[in-house]
Amino acid sequence: MKTQFLSDPARPTARGGAHAALSLPSLAWLESPASLASATSTKFAAFSNHLGHASHPSQIDDKTLTTPLAGSPTRPHSVPPMSDHRAIKNPVASRGELQNGRRLTPPPEYRPLPPSAGVKGGVDLNPSQREVAFSTEKHVVVLAGAGTGKTAAIVHKVAHLIRGGVPRGDVMMITFTRRAASEMQKRIGALIKDIPKHGKDDTMLVGTYHAIASLLLRRDAAGFGLRGSNFTTLDEDDANSLMKSAFRECDVKPGDSVTPAKVRSALSYSLNKRIPLETHFEHEFRENAGRALTLVKWYRKLKQTANGLDYDDLLVVWGRRLAEDKDYAARLRSAYRYVICDEFQDNNALNYEILSRLDPEHLTVVGDVNQSIFGFRGASCGLVDIFLKEHPDARVIRLEKNYRSGQKILDLANGVVESCPRALVLTSAKGHDTITEQVPLPTSVTESAFILDWIRRRIERGTKPSEIAVLSRSSRSIETVELALKFQKIPYRKYGGLALGDSAEVKDFIAFLRLAFNANDRVALVRCLTLFPGVGEASAENYASADDEPHDELFAVERSLPRGAGSLNEWLTQLRTAKGLGARGEFLLHVIYPLIERNYPQNHPERMATLQALVDSMKATPLSMAEFLDAFSLEKSTEKDHHESELTVATIHASKGLEYDCVVLCGAGSAQMPHPKSTDPEAFEEERRLMYVAVTRARNRLLITYPVDGVPGSPQRPSPFLPPKFPWDQLTG
Predict the structure, then answer these.
(1) Is the peptide bond preceding residue 674 cis, with omega within 30 degrees of 0?
(2) CA gap 680, 638 in Å, rounded
(3) Would you say the C-alpha torsion 356, 358, 361, 364 has a positive or negative sign?
(4) Widest CA span of the chain, in angstroms?
(5) What is the torsional sign of CA 247, 519, 581, 607?
(6) Are 587 and 578 in contact, with CB atoms under 8 Å apart?
(7) Per-residue buried b or exposed e for 404-426, using 16+ beta carbons within 10 Å of the residue's own CB
(8) Is pLDDT of 24 > 50?
(9) Burial code of 364-389, b = ≥16 C-beta within 10 A, e = fewer?
(10) pLDDT digits over 572-593, tens only?
(11) How far apart are CA 435 and CA 457, in angstroms?
(12) What does pTM read for this prediction?
């Protein structure tokens, strides 16, 4: 099955950090995406005033989903397209022509299969899962507890739709991780491989909000008011670099209250929570709010000059058009009649507005309010209640039979959240005995020593190291365990570490490709210049900011490159004229070698080997330049195989979606969980949900530890989230 498979963003680390051995992700999974519709709206959104040609900073802010657009046209971006830039296809045409956002011909009739019908290659579903798979209501809410087989229910639902006559291209699946999207598209493909397509472009759309938004914006840049489809998607590292540049432009020195990271975080939180920017900044920065708002204006101006959009911009621009261009919203609604949104509890207000304005013919949302642990990103578990209030006729289905853990572990998990609204009561389908232990230790050092001894005993009794995880509320609480593992030379893998796209040499390599693709990419220009001998960050910044007007060519203004970087212009010309992604990679690999050797003298052969593997992948992939660059800004995780000899060390946030035979939750004392800063009721309840997520990672055995001396002068007790009368097992070998 050919599926448009898009991926999720990852957070990078700063350039020049410690280099780690990395495996290369296959880029073949990101197939050439088809366009949603070739027809352009008669309304021409005047976003050029915001993103392209205004002399003032762009105004992508908290008002962009409600403020009417001015009706001025945008100029097309005149940079010659790359030689492999692809023509836009229209998969909607194969499913019925559209006019004014409506079908001229009806879509193929959906013939619901009876609940008794099976799926070739499918699994036996329990009654609740079958309810999900055969649900036909306009709005369905699936409350799916941890380990209850929600993915099986979802993929069977899609398979039944397609086997009943719904074209694949009528289905949009929104996920929050590439791992989830990969699993779903693979399992659905196996269930419908015998079902013919409704035309060659009949493909499902699977991806995150950000990846789907990026696809839509690139396929109809003019309709979104953008200068062109060759905008740069700014990852977190790029966006932080631009914010630092805004500080320099405004001659503001970062202090305790106003730093680049704090301003960006506050801006993102405001946009995702739909809080007016001025209101939120007054709360966050108080007397420094005016200064912080000025920095945001300069940050937007720098993005505008660089022809770049950060992650939040992708969603804001998409949501704005859905709100204001009714014809466009109708076309999208007609193209994707069946929308499934997974991990609904991780949605924020901006996500919810997009979903509401899309308003598909059939919408299924799937989630568990007790696994909502990303409030710092703006996620809100209260959206389930809002959804049910707005859609009182929605069908609610509860999945509570757990296929992961033994009952005693589930009893503990149920006890953690029993006071929470909409709490599910999990029951085990496995029926085997499990062990739950709680051990206080004198200090964090003795805690880590005890944990290592406990792990050794598990391994000696036959548990694979890869089936053992050490989790913690914060990275600080897990540091002593990590140090002990290093000293004992015990192999482990830490989740949330360096990814391929975050390694310095790959970011260097990608910067040259980005600059060839988007002549106004200031962040890429600065990175490229600083690689050359004799060019420091200050001179590179000065050169990049010498002319803030967007240009079609990098050096449209007659001025000399910084000394030592004279070959840059020639390199970019070669990259623009080379035919195909592989040819560009080969050329750049050859010319960049002296720069890698100079900037990374201690391990340049290893870094060049990584780049060689990257170029080999470029030769094999069918991606266009835009798709390839998006693959690195929207998805950087290598997702390399976890070797059987490696333990897992992770924060609870990073462990979500994973499971292990044996789990250690360390640092779980009363002064550690909840986190000391989680003082308001909402944050306190999110800490409770973190405990629930940690407990439900364990299949067979769970150990909870904490250091008694965690807080000087005040001995720790067990976390208040743990049931006080729970029957813990006696510590055994």
Answers:
(1) yes
(2) 37
(3) negative
(4) 78
(5) negative
(6) yes
(7) bbbbbbbbbbbbbbeeeeebbeb
(8) no
(9) bbbbbbbbbbbbeebbbbebbeebbe
(10) 999 999 989 999 999 999 999 9
(11) 14
(12) 0.73
